[in-house]
Amino acid sequence: MQPLRLLGFASEAALPVHAERTGRRCGEEFHQALLNEEARVQEKIKTADIAREAGAGWPLRDPQLERQTWDALQRCLRTCEAALEARIRGESGLSLPRHLALTALAEAPEGLTMSELARALGVTNANVTALVDALERDGWAAREGAAGDRRKVVVRLSASARRTARTLNQTFALSLGELLSELPVPELRLLVNLLEKLRRNAEQAAERGQDRSRQLAGHGAGGPGMGWV
What is the pLDDT of residues 68-90, one digit of tens each? Predict the structure, then answer.
């Protein structure tokens, strides 16, 4: 057999045709590779620009955008809380704060002190006192002495309240799923990370504010005719 036939060519006349096709295919692949590389570089440039604009210490701020962000956070929180409360109240007659208190207490069989419950709910001690008063009045919870230390008062759920809390947790999970159903998992993770970043920054700002308040208090009334409230 002739060498050309071993290579798959019927005759020498087929060589130019094959070479043209191979060259054209290589040219197309090279052109596509250039396009892909250009797209990759443009994406890197775009990402770098976004990162630079969003980076810490970036000198330009947008007060209007910052206010819009704050307003959007407030509206979103109020709307989500209203939707969840409507669902929970329809199932049990409980408000959302009472449901969240039941959930926190249900997860602590030994009970929670008033301060621990306040921290779990993210509210003040005064708010949690009013909340526990209402739960106790309606038979959902009771203040009792802590095991091993009767001087320490904890809040515990009644048996029926624990059963109700389990049912309401299922309702709450379904309602929360409906609220967040338009956000795919990657967006939810991004949202959580951004909110955690905002929370940490807010905590640092609060600490700086407290330090400033202590400094002002340490200076007393200041100069003549000046006082601090």
Answer: 999 999 999 999 999 988 988 88
